[in-house]
Amino acid sequence: MTGTLRVAMIGHGFMGAAHSQGWRVAPRFFDLPLDPVMQVVTGRDDATTAAAAAKWGWAESSTDWRETIARDDVDVVDIVTPGDTHAEIAIAALEAGKHVLCEKPLANSVAEAEAMTDAAARAEARGIRAMVGFTYRRVPAATFARSLVADGRIGEVRQVRAEYLQDWLMDPEAPMTWRLDRAKAGSGSLGDIGAHAVDLAEFITGQTIDSVSGIVETLVDERPLLGESVGLSGTASAERGRVTVDDVAFFTGRLNSGALASFEASRYRTGRKNALRVEVSGTRGALAFDLERLNELEFYDATAPETELGFRRILVTEHDHPYLAPWWPTGHMLGYEHGFSHQVLDFTTAIAGASSPRPSFADGLHVQRVLDAVERSSAADSRWVQTND
Amino acid sequence: MTGTLRVAMIGHGFMGAAHSQGWRVAPRFFDLPLDPVMQVVTGRDDATTAAAAAKWGWAESSTDWRETIARDDVDVVDIVTPGDTHAEIAIAALEAGKHVLCEKPLANSVAEAEAMTDAAARAEARGIRAMVGFTYRRVPAATFARSLVADGRIGEVRQVRAEYLQDWLMDPEAPMTWRLDRAKAGSGSLGDIGAHAVDLAEFITGQTIDSVSGIVETLVDERPLLGESVGLSGTASAERGRVTVDDVAFFTGRLNSGALASFEASRYRTGRKNALRVEVSGTRGALAFDLERLNELEFYDATAPETELGFRRILVTEHDHPYLAPWWPTGHMLGYEHGFSHQVLDFTTAIAGASSPRPSFADGLHVQRVLDAVERSSAADSRWVQTND
Amino acid sequence: MTGTLRVAMIGHGFMGAAHSQGWRVAPRFFDLPLDPVMQVVTGRDDATTAAAAAKWGWAESSTDWRETIARDDVDVVDIVTPGDTHAEIAIAALEAGKHVLCEKPLANSVAEAEAMTDAAARAEARGIRAMVGFTYRRVPAATFARSLVADGRIGEVRQVRAEYLQDWLMDPEAPMTWRLDRAKAGSGSLGDIGAHAVDLAEFITGQTIDSVSGIVETLVDERPLLGESVGLSGTASAERGRVTVDDVAFFTGRLNSGALASFEASRYRTGRKNALRVEVSGTRGALAFDLERLNELEFYDATAPETELGFRRILVTEHDHPYLAPWWPTGHMLGYEHGFSHQVLDFTTAIAGASSPRPSFADGLHVQRVLDAVERSSAADSRWVQTND
Amino acid sequence: MTGTLRVAMIGHGFMGAAHSQGWRVAPRFFDLPLDPVMQVVTGRDDATTAAAAAKWGWAESSTDWRETIARDDVDVVDIVTPGDTHAEIAIAALEAGKHVLCEKPLANSVAEAEAMTDAAARAEARGIRAMVGFTYRRVPAATFARSLVADGRIGEVRQVRAEYLQDWLMDPEAPMTWRLDRAKAGSGSLGDIGAHAVDLAEFITGQTIDSVSGIVETLVDERPLLGESVGLSGTASAERGRVTVDDVAFFTGRLNSGALASFEASRYRTGRKNALRVEVSGTRGALAFDLERLNELEFYDATAPETELGFRRILVTEHDHPYLAPWWPTGHMLGYEHGFSHQVLDFTTAIAGASSPRPSFADGLHVQRVLDAVERSSAADSRWVQTND
Description:
alpha/beta, Rossmann fold, 9-stranded mixed sheet, 6-stranded parallel sheet, 28% strand
């Protein structure tokens, strides 16, 4: 490695743990062009932020993100706070000349996302890089799916089905968290997990969604307020609050090629824990990726002899699969957090190589526009709405 | 058995073979209240109809369906012709005092289906029975799924996903058959297979679809005309014709309980051969039925301890599963055509017991109204449309 | 069809039902060279045999098998009695000039099987055909597996794993049936289901087992005697009897190519209902057949590019798959009893074509020798024992 | 944490990478009672060991393991060298008063393993801990399987099937590595992967194997010598060498309860990449663990109503599953190397709590005795051989 990359992370919840693991582990397995230094983590509360620094291995902690991004000894700002704060922090960081990695969704509104994208464009002109964290693109099986499509192995895309299903809100007494508050989260299942389905479907197919027709809906209107946070959820307090985001979203999108894609996002699908599944069907083949079996890819080669047609289960653990070479021997599985190491690899490579990393803020803005179009369609009796890119 | 039931079958294509197998095999395994007699098969062409009679074991053949339904020695008229002829034959048969079993879809239009339903109601008053052939209800795993829902094992239904996916039209040079001609088939994937998805989702949940928003679309506009029929397809002639039906249909339905259901019907989904899948998610559990593994049911009991939650694969081959007792020992599989024996059992039981068989013509009309509403929604920019029951 | 084939069936239990279904259904779907006539069924008890004749569609019933095989109007004797009676009936039938189809296992001992094979050889010289009923060879996916091996698609066979697992004897209070009585059944899991695993592994690989090392064992020594038969089991009487057959059998076999094959037969494997599974691994590929998903075959082509390797799930329901052409369209499943129609096709074809049907009595004798060798090895501290073909 | 635990690792191949990851990551997720310090890594070659230290994050490197274990600033010796060196290093380290973690197999021979176990017993008396690295015990689904058995959820164990299948030696031109050299590796598939199958089957069932009957065999006698190492394999040189270990091992074991267990280890099973699968069948249930889907456990509760019986797929990612609480939310997968963090947790907990960690050297010796008994049985015509514990 020819130099270091000093990182400041803003926020330290679930995503902070995942990002920390990425910064720590990536340099052990990949020959990064720049050596990440876990410089400082920043949060609102002094004690908990200091504890997070100790736990996740950051050299320092701070409670002032503006101070953090002003530091000379910080090269990268890694934003893992709730979506309502992304715009302010990211724009300030870019203007301060820091490379920015921002968790998804890029923002809670199209307007914020546009401002961020503008800021990224201005920064880009000065050699400053910005990337949004749709990490599932970097699960090797998903990356490999994209390359199969790009190589023409499934022919022209004819239909897509993408769904992201969870069930952790099934219990109507599960408490309100910031993820159920529109002011903090922007939207519910739609933005939290539907955003992943949109990004992954577009990433794998190499296409974009031009218009949508859909519906979003809240199934449980009122919940206990959050007592103490535990993991993604927590304990219930005696008071109740109003759920202001959607619980489920169903929509159909028109891809730029004209093909139709069907989407579903729900945190109400009993028995599905983290079921992000994308199926792509084309004129010469088909494939399916499922995050609950993230080391596998189903691939169907329609050009095989009729008697030998079938979906094959590829274990995406070979040396020549994306990102796999430095990890373990064939058949040794990767887990959820490995994508964060791959993200560090790609981001540091882009910074060192002076290239534009993907997914860019413009990519994140586009996803935000799709989500916004879904909400507008839902409000308009499910009429088709342009995503207005 | 206390008497016989003399059957006339109108039509003798793929469905004629399946129905013949039902009439022949059912009395060997079930104690039917009436003994079916395969009296006469009726078709348009003399030679091919006579050949069908010999092949499928009908005592006689005829080319005049009016004459057939007028016969004194016919108790039941079993209609397996394309949908454009259902109304005329079924109404005439009911008026002639014959019990009628009519293949799905009930008709090619709501108007025809209404007329048929009216005729069935008039006949019912005279003790004449009418049933529509949504045979997949009688796959034991599907019937068992309905009983789990009815018994409250999955609680209140919160979400449904139903899809019927095939790929036999992927090849743009596959020839036009009557199934691609709106005049004969009414619609394309929507009526051919989407109808099954609608009926099965409603059957399993015990609910009906009140309104829909959706889109139907033709992917291949023009195809070679059909030369010689082979199975469901055939050889291509040199001339070409215009495809007048949809290839794919995506729609969302609102169930009478308020829950949303997502549907997809396609004969363009590469690698899916006969993939009718219905997933039902409720407050206490979930289940999934898949016709490509028709002897299995996936069931998730959300009331299990957290560490033991999981979809279980039930082999629906136990003595106490629906329809299973007279068949083979546990673990010995049933196939596609067994549903037609179960249909014969249920239909003859209804006739002998003077009860109303289900799915009734009214059920068939309702499905037709759902399909019609999907087409109307598609034409109205996917706005929500009432099914107008 | 150019003539008829008049069939007498001896026995009418579970296997009688399956064979009856084969004789009735096969001529409806296949163009048989000879038209089967279900002439007479023969049993021990007058009333139950007459009832079986009525139920399964045999023209007459009889309680004297010797009389039956002496009839001029009988061309084929189909033996579906317990194994202890096979030799006497089959030899007499062959000597009476009748073609014989005998259920597996061919006999309860090697000596009996040898006598039967000798009788079949003598009969063969006079144009009389004999076949043993290893019907699972005729499940299309199993037949297709054999053709893949024969075509070199998996290269040289290196390893085989075959298991037949059920759990219907798990309950120690499940009553004694003839299948638990050595005098009637010859052996337990070994002969009842292990025989199928042996035959199917040999059939798919095209190889034979030369020697074995293994162990057989009885897990439950004593059970209630059988009260009334119900299906494969029945009610328990108050008296108890001694189980005289094995419950489980584990053995390793050496194939004639030198490759090793691992076998397990058990009616004590909790949760496995009818799990006959054969995995074959070769230098260029691998495959796996599982009777609980009998319409599927798993196939692995090791010559694919490294990144695209994977077991594919072939739905064996295509027109060009073995036996499939006259059945239903692609994706419409077959069940357990379809193999019996295929057996009728192959047997009548052999008779009409004056060729030797397979599996022959010699094939059945070979399986018996393997089973016998397993028992001898078990008695000899699991030393390797030649099968002595 | 109340103190530190200074670790020296001897060896730095594939296993060294995995162990390093465990030492680095465990303290970030678990509240360890002692804080590991990655003090020194020791290898044969100066440059490569220094490179390993840098890559995997060890403070120092050394080429003299005797010097390393003599250091005052080393508390733990972690041995990840080939099996032929384990005994010498481990005994010396224990005698030097260091806690020892030794990769499996414990040794290449029973005699060595006995000496190591004696040394561990002597050290234990002085408060020094020794553990052997059968890490797959610490895959949460495997640990959970053991607890289900211990809790009686499957009743009395009646049958076990354990197999560890890979295919990376299928190619007869794959070069010789130390894993194919009996002097270095002790045995082939048997010790390399069969050892895992033995340990995991015993761990899950809570039983031990008393006697075995089996066969081991070499399928490819001669291979190119190794040029340059790459991952588990490498490039082929022009010279050839003799393979002195087994390629496949098939054996049956008798558990101390009397139940039989069937084993297979093979690096020749086409299409199986890292397929360690253990199935346990009991009087009240059954379960199956498969390393290729390591976040899942199949569980069958035989006490469910007959119509609801079925293997359920439990996603072992819940907060209350073993080891899961500090990792990610439900449905976020773990990978191969997480077991090494769990190993660090358990080992440091034992050291801090002055308890004996498992698997102990005695456990490792027992596995070695089973492997040895398999080889002796193979040499004795597969007769049954006591494991002589």
